[in-house]
Amino acid sequence: MFDYAINVNEEAGSFWSSCDDIPEAHSAGDTLEELLRHAAEGLEVALSIYVDQLRPIPLASPAKEGQRVIRLSALVNAKIALWNAMREKGMRKADLCRTLGAAQTRVDRLLDFEHSSKIEQVEIALAALGKRLVVSVEST
């Protein structure tokens, strides 16, 4: 759903990436392994731009040949789903605050991809929007 494929480029002995689905996402590293470790963080920062600009976050496209897939955490996936559910309903953060009876800081944290919210809190917010979080386990 939100496992984004990145393009890996090597230049002058270092690596950098771009993402077709999230063009704002870029990462770099001195090695390919370092780049891949940083890629999830780069995606999370880029996703914050979508929230700031009140834009829905696009689903991930299937990976093309040569691309690497970055798997975001279950928590980040749930937060993206929450944000997109809000956008579907035309809601802003203040609307979610009212719906949940929650303080602005709590809602800000629920929509901060770098904040380690409790998954239960995201579930509660999704339920308030008529959504249910489903988790599955797949073989790698």
TrEMBL record:
InterPro entries: TTHA1013/TTHA0281-like. SUPFAM superfamilies: TTHA1013/TTHA0281-like. This is Type II toxin-antitoxin system HicB family antitoxin. The lineage of its organism: Bacteria, Pseudomonadati, Pseudomonadota, Gammaproteobacteria, Pseudomonadales. It comes from Pseudomonas kermanshahensis.
